[in-house]
Each structure stands twice: as structure tokens, then as C-alpha cells.
Amino acid sequence: MEFLTEPTVHVLSVPHFFDHPQYKLPEGGTNSERLVAHAGKGCYDSYGSDGRSIPEHLGSLISTRHGSVLEHANISLFITGISRGCSHEIVRHRAGFGYSQRSTRYTREDDASFVLDPFYAGLAIKRREGGPGSLTIDEAAILNQFIRVCTDGLKEYSEAVIWLMEEAPKEKNGVERRKWARGKARQLLPHALETRMTMTGNLRAWRFFLEERSGPFAEPEIRRLAAAVMGALVPHAPLVFKDMLDGMVVVDGYPHFKPEVPKV
Questions:
Q1: Hey, which CATH number is domain 10-77+196-256, 3.30.470.20, 3.30.1360.170, 3.40.228.10, 3.40.50.300?
Q2: Between 192 and which of 1, 68, 114, 131 could a Cys-Cys bridge form, CB atoms 3.0 to 4.6 Å apart?
Q3: Sign of torsion, CA 100 101 105 110?
Q4: Of these residues, 84, 204, 207, 213, which one is catalytic?
């Protein structure tokens, strides 16, 4: 069993743009940005290699809230080290996103990891770096209680799976019996259980996700994730997120990506 203190975000897929032989664009920009620019210039019939630059054009699209053109470029991320509780918040973002999440019915959780939300993560890191005496009595008690609840929940889950496997309908095959047993036993697993998911979104959806989930009213764990997501996305579409980075402020230790023009 492992207790995780940070999420990981890995870029799986980004667009590959093929320049049109007739409808030319100025030089520059990433594949994602050129795709958005091609879509935008098509709306105004403003193609041409000597036309308005890619940065100027994308800046204009965002400032005028012409966000629909951002929907052409999709980026897929593989996210690990987040809790099931955090994933429940993520999947509320429906428009522009697709999800594929690790199943607790088909997978074993006997050696599961748990995610420490930033409050608990801070206590764990403080104890790891400063030794057992670095936490106050109350801090140590609340951290130990959290770890104990997770450990006990996993133990109860594992025992329930064994018992339920014996009770599973005999006409089911091995896979079906395991799915039947795990599907019932998983109710015992804490929300802190680590999950992994592939998340695909278009650039407009990603902007909205970052705008909402990096803000001070969002939960700390998803704010922590938003910072990692921004770090993964920016190299592939820096012009699309430039205004959000320029407007960034730090609130309660987390970056809040405040766009110049909200809700593009």
C-alpha cells in the first residue's frame, strides 16, 4: 500500500496539423494552434501566408470570445495519483470531454494506493522530512487516523471479496464471479482510493476546466491537479493559455489561472 501526495499528468495525444495546399497560414505556432488558426481564418476568409500572424489571430479569437474554433483541437491526458473523490468532481465537466476510468469492478484493489489531499499530504511530508517529533500531537493524531481508516477499509474490502467469491452465483464464470464480488465489496473502499483515467478534451473545454478548478472556491486536491494539467497543456498550445498564465495569481499556495476574458 502506498500513500500518494501528488498527481501525475502525461500527455497521450495532440493534434497533427497538415497545411492546406491552397489556403495558406503564416509561419509559426504549434500543431494545435495552427489547427485553431485555420478554423478561425476560414470563418473570415482571411487566409494567406502574409496575413495576420498566428499569435495575433489567436489573441483576437480569444478576446472576442470566438471560442468555438478552440473546439477543433483535442488533447488527451493520462492522469494518475488522484482520489476517487476528486474524479467525481472531474467528470462533472461534460461539455467537450471524454473519460475512460479505471474500474473497481474489474481490477484488484488488494495492493491499492491512497491519495493524501493537500492537507494530509502537508502533514505527511512534514513528518517525513522532520521526523516523528515534527508534528504536534493533534497533527499526528489526525494523520494517523486518516491512514488507519484507509488501511482498515482496504482490509475489510479484501476480506469481503473473499467471502463474496464464495457466495457468488455458481453459474457465473470466473470473470463474472470476480466482477460480482468486487462490485459489492467496493462500497467499503474509501473515497481516498487512487484512481487513474484518460481524459480527452478540446482546448475550449480545457480552458474552462482550468478557469473553474484553479479558483479559490475549488477543492484543494483538484486545484493541485489543475496546476499539473496546465503544465502539461501549455507546451502544446501556449498561445491559447497565454492570457490565463499572464493573469495568474497565487491564492492559498495554489496558482489561480485568471483569464483576461473569462468563459471563452
A1: 3.30.1360.170
A2: 114
A3: positive
A4: 213
Q: What is the Cα–Cα distance from 88 to 1, expressed in whole angstroms?
A: 22
Is the pTM here over 0.70, yes or no? Answer: yes
**What does residue 77 show for φ and ψ, rounded to 5 degrees?**
-120, 145
* Residue at 238: amino acid letter: P
- DSSP 3-state of 114: strand
Looking at residue 26, its amino acid is: P
Nine cell digits for residue 229: 494539467
3-state DSSP assignment of residue 162: helix
196 carries an active-site annotation: no
For 131-189, the pLDDT digits (tens) are: 888 999 999 999 999 999 999 999 999 999 999 999 999 999 989 999 999 999 999 99
Q: How many Cα atoms sit within 13 Å of 66 on the Cβ side?
A: 16
Within 13 Å of residue 219, how many CA atoms lie on the same side as its CB? 14
Which amino acid makes up residue 189? L
Backbone region of residue 102 per phi and psi (left: phi > 0; alpha: psi in -120 to 50; beta: other values)? beta
Exposed e or buried b per residue across 211-222, where buried means at least 16 C-beta atoms within 10 angstroms of its C-beta: bbbbeeebebbb
Chain segment 84-129, per-residue pLDDT in tens: 999 999 999 999 999 999 999 999 898 899 999 999 999 999 999 9
Domain boundaries, given as residue ranges, for the chain: 10-77+196-256, 105-192
- Which amino acid is it at 88? H
Q: Which amino acid, 74?
A: N
Is residue 60 within 8 Å of residue 36, measured between CB atoms? no
